[in-house]
Amino acid sequence: MERNFLTDLFKYVVGLSKPDVVEIDGLPYSDRPELNRIKPPVATGLTVSTLTAVIDYIKANIDNITGAGTKIFIHIKDFNVVKIYGYLDSQHKVRDCYLGAVYSGDNVDLSEWQPTDKFIPQLQSLFMDGGDKENLLKVLGNLSSDATISFMDDGVTTETQAKVGIDRRADVTLPATVTLTPFSTFPEIEQPQRKYTFRLQRSNEKIMARIIPADGETWKNAAMKSIYDYIKEQAPACESILY
Fold first, then answer.
1. Which tens digit of pLDDT belongs to each residue from 131-172?
2. What distance in Å separates the CA atoms of residue 212 and residue 111, rounded to the nearest whole number?
3. How far is it, in rounded angstroms, from Cα 158 to Cα 155?
4. What is the pLDDT of residues 48-73, one digit of tens each?
5. What residue ranges do the domains of the chain occupy?
6. Which of 17, 60, 80, 161 could form a disulfide with 148 if both were Cys (CB 3.0 to 4.6 A apart)?
7. Which of 140, 148, 105, 146 is nearest to 121 (CA)?
8. For residue 78, what are the contacts with CB-CB under 8 A and spacing of at least 6?
9. Which sign, positive or negative, has the C-alpha torsion 212, 213, 216, 217?
């Protein structure tokens, strides 16, 4: 007990003393807590939500990052994240991060079963027009509560019964795989189309619907390529763009 107290007291007293700084091969080192290299401070980047802000930041050169002797590169980290970095400090192995753009839109996920009265508004608001959206909305909007739903043996189509006129119904065949375009990345670029597996089922007295992603997330690569093309077009002076 006493020995531990003396050890802690010794460490405290040593900690009050001024650290020694020595230079080895032209680089400063400190003896606290051991002989560690003193690293220079690095920039902590601003966070924005659009690609337009990224381009404006580069062109305005607010922080003098594109001046003589200064090098930057743009890292397209993902379909929703873009960052501007300085080049690696070869001596201290650190780099500045000047700016980060993060797309903050809603995550589009309709893979869970939902009643059509909830599914339809989300399909209308979270997806761009085009593809199979109009056909899905038309059929889902005309389904009756007692509609007959059946699946073809080949698993390629879904057959359901929908109203086609006053008190008139007809069998309607829908593809099991549909093409839709959700709002999924920065608005400045073309939103990538995605394939989904479309399913209907009955649950008690309600018709339930869902769509399951069926493209292996290849759309993310397409989005990153579109981001690359956009930055290259808007800021051609940026030679280093990684994705």
1. 999 988 988 887 766 655 554 434 545 555 444 443 434 556
2. 5
3. 8
4. 999 999 999 999 888 887 665 567 88
5. 43-104, 114-216
6. 161
7. 140
8. 220, 224
9. negative
